[in-house]
Amino acid sequence: MIAHPHNPDPSRLSIWQLNVNKSNEAQIAFAHDPDARNATVVAIQEPYLDHLNSSRAPPGWTPIYPSHHHLKDQLRSRSFLDVTALKVQTPAGPILICNVYNPCDANTSLPHVSTLLRAHRGHVIVLGDFNRHHPDWDESRNAHLFTSAALDLAQPLLDIINGNFLSMALPRDTPTLQSTSTKNYTRPDNVFMSAPLTESLISCDTAPASRPPCTNHFPVVTTLDISPTEAPRITKPNFKKTDWSEFRRVLGKALDNLPGLRRINNQEEIDSRVGNIMETIYEAVRASTPDLRLCAWSKRWWSPELGAHRKLARSLAARSYRARFDRDNPIHEEYRLQRNRFSQAIKDAKRKHWEDFLEELDEESMWTAAGYLSSEPTDGGRARVPSLRYTQPDNTPASATDNDTKSRVLMESFFPPAPPPCQPDTPTPQHPTPVPEPHELQTRHVRQAVFSMKPHKAPGPDGIPACVYIQSVDLLEDHLLPIFRASLRHGIYPTEWRKSRTIVLSKPGKPDYSIAKAYRPIALLNVISKILYACVANRLNSLAEEHGWLPDHHFGGRSGRTTTDALHLLAKTVKDAWATKKVASSLFLNVKGAFPHANPLRLAKNMRQLGVPTIYVNWMLAKLDGRTTCLAFDDYTSPSLPIDNGIDQGCPLSVIFYLLYNAPLVRIPRPRSNELCIAYIDDVTFVVWGSSFEENHRDLVAMMSRRGGALECSKKLDCPPLKIRDQIITPVKSHTLLGVIFDQTLNWREHCDKALAKGQKWAGQLNRLARMSYGTSAQTARRLYRSIAVPRFSYAADVWFTPVSTTPGKRKSGSVGFATRLARIQSTAARAILGAMRSTPAICLAAVPPSHPLHRAVAKCATGRRKFPPPLQNILRFAGVSPTDFEHWPLDRRPLPSTPPEPFPDRDTAMSSAWADTAHLQVFTDATAGRLGVAAAAVLWESGGRELRTGLRLGDAGSLSVLDAEIAGILLAAHLVITAQEDTIVDDVSIYTDSQAAISCINNHSQGASVQLLKATCRAIRLAKKGSGGTPIRIRWCPGHAGVPGNEAADEEANRVASGLIYPPHLIPKFLTEFRPTTNPATCKKAMKAGNRTLAEAHWRASDAHAKFSTKYPNISPRHFLAHSHTLTRSRATLLFRLTTGHIQLRQHLFRLKLVDSPKCEHCRDESETVTHYLFRCPQYAKQRWEHLASRGTAFLRPAFLLHASCALEPLFDYVKDTGRFAELVR
């Protein structure tokens, strides 16, 4: 029904929907609801129909019925599919609104919805009562509704959502129905809309107060802002096209013209020095960087051909208009044809641009595609902040309609005012003596901070990104260092660095965007100031660990600690209590607006009590004083607004400042009193355990009385409410901590449902990049799935997923149900990756990739478990390892890099450099890890002709990783240099290795190698550099097996050492002779991956599908399909996979799916139309077969060769194209 609003607002589209349960009373009451009367569109499901097949509508409303309604001799509308649709013309374009009622036991309405969506090709809203339950939208507590049958019925709806790129507008866990019998709240109703429309979504929520009688459904209200917006033209420097050599030349010249580097003593001098440096940077940017101009009409798919089409169409349009009175003039037809050609050319250009982008995805651009999957839906324009509701100081409601008022309302929400100062008569507390101040900042600290930054991250108000400082740190460091030292020494802070720019972004999934709490701030700070912040943060983090300023169980923002550490500790604490027949209670503190509410004065007090050096306390107060920011939203930037409280979010110092701020809160529990506190930045959890819940509650009240707070409880058994002062806290059955749902029995069922919903979402997202006839390659799609999707839905699986174990004669135990349901996600993703038909067996899909991402998790493992084992114990038993077997990695194992992460040269350049090297000593290293064992070797060549060789067998196969062996080779090379220095003055040294990963580990740019081995290698290199009065040593990459003599000699030597060759002890470093490697985590992971692959292949060989496959294609493994098809286009790879599996649109397979009446070939009628019949026997295609296949040899008439030989693929596709079959896959 289309409504005429009682109080219309032309800028908003308001849609109300409700299932009135065929009740006249419900429909009348709903139609006269004072809020519903203001709707633009009302969508009714199961409406009331009288004996004349008519419904009821108030005056002024225009009813819209299904197409067959009220036709003569037609049955009642309920005998037909309950789908109605209408188009609403808006300033943003037409919007198709589909109102759907889907029966409980079938999906009869959904095919017609899919047809409507394919025909529209524009913005759509699909809403109604779908009668489907799924973890994507239902609450986790309704897990009993997620049966296999229910999930199967929901799958076609999910396919429509994913296939048409629709987003769910109604937030998850919002119930829309209350059961009449059980009174349970469920979610059969839903709202889906095109992704671009979500940018205009103001609110989507239920209206329980407007629920009429005689129906158990709640009205759902969707409001869109349809007022048009215009994106302004933006001009800014395009730093990705900067001429860096010119930039450095201009910058160096400008810096030389600056005044001398005198000592800075006051605020005026530091402001002047910062201003001079920034002006030189601006000058260099202007001279070396072109402008990037963006406007609302910029389209990547536009081409000169489209411009020519447009020009001709405009000319013909003018001529046709001038001849409008002459209807027989041929110009009208000419214009019509050109207009259609122009329209089709636009469609073709957009489609071709998107398809070309997907087909050409490479190592770099594939992550751009991953960003499209991960980012919030957008239409490419700027999001708008609608009118905001707020409360005035006199408690009267008001609406902020202009940008100035909106910025004030948002500012009050983002940055609350500071608390009142302490009373003047408060005695000054005694503080401990501060720890000794570290040495002043050095240039290496500045370089470490600069090289750890992301080069093209959004800059602050000055518009200079980090790439500018990365490219010129060697020129700027002598000018920046005095500023940084003076700022810390005198407690002064540059005025320009107090300014920031705050971007206003909407929080995803909020039901109402007309309130300020639905938005979050993103602070952009000047990058030059963040260099100093990073230097100070590194020092404070190091001092905090060294002097124990932070509690042991404060996990957030600290090196070597992750969210799963906190989750494991909580789960283990609870299960340990249960194992001793005690009960545990958890108190979850929700710190609202943590960073903006942090008081700098209280932070300074905490820092003094911990003994933080005074220089950093005073500097922190100076930094956080006098700050201003500009709010940026829509096309508006507010004036500078003061910030009186809080810590800057996005600042490198924000985490360590907040950890010091709330450290006293984490120290409240007394460990000896069965109390524990677990914290991850602002997520704080108190845990107590005792003989009863009443005892636990007394302990929690005692802790809360020390520090007060908010409460969420999660317990094993029913327990009485907890009362803290005047607040009564009701226990809940589950609570989300750090993204994981803890339930009162720790069986993790609710979180498993959440993970399943995430997995289904990400598997569906792959359809955007991998369609049947176009898209990215199967290899790229699989890599995106494993690197983006799998980590998202398997987050913290080591906590909530119990490995599946089986005992002879007993049922499987562990997360059996989740593992089974996980296979549904795996098969959906595999079909999208490979372009397979839905009828393709899951076992065939799983056999193609080398391993199932979680195959080991669904296989059996021998275990015997005691009562209430913690998650880590299950994992260690499952993996068959002991923690003591692993190498100990210290928390500070990965220092910040001190050399720029320059890319390695290409293969040819590296070879030429190795051939042309004239260093005094050239040392080549190599390693091997094969069936003979793990060995490393080094060969030293001196310019005078001297040669030294050494090598060592490090262990059996699998004892060390190849990376460890390569680093051991570099250690041997350094030892040879030290040996040569004993009787020779060495001028310079070049050490060559064919492992880029080993060089990255030595330069602290990556990790994964044995820590002790890496430390010994770095010590040996430093010692060699000190020899001969100082010897320059360069570690370079040389491609392996490329004909470089030194590398070939080292490779031969490594093989000889692995076979048993032993060198004299003086040529072997003492460390390596005594090195007994413990289990390296990287080596263990590699072994487990190999085990996963073995299990997957065994599972495939035991299946019936393998027997059929091996009969048709002997000696062929399906796991090689991805490598075999990596050079093919998406459509051709899809065709090849379908021909290989036999699940393709040929009559025998279509007959099996009951889509045709006979499996016989429609051309010859002699036999069933199978793949082999179509390719090799059908007489209809005899001419094409001879031309493309038979004329090339008899091998081309064998399936195993034609479908699996690289040289046969092109003739195969030519044959298929010439037959005229599968045109969409061979275009």
UniProtKB/TrEMBL annotation:
Residues 486-742 form the Reverse transcriptase domain. Residues 389-402 have a biased composition (Polar residues). Residues 373-439 are annotated as: Disordered. Residues 917-1059 form the RNase H type-1 domain. Keywords: Nucleotidyltransferase, RNA-directed DNA polymerase, Transferase. Residues 416-436 have a biased composition (Pro residues). One of its GO terms (molecular function) is RNA-DNA hybrid ribonuclease activity. The keyword Nucleotidyltransferase applies. PANTHER family: ENDONUCLEASE_EXONUCLEASE_PHOSPHATASE DOMAIN-CONTAINING PROTEIN-RELATED, REVERSE TRANSCRIPTASE. This is Putative RNA-directed DNA polymerase from transposon BS. It comes from Rhizoctonia solani.
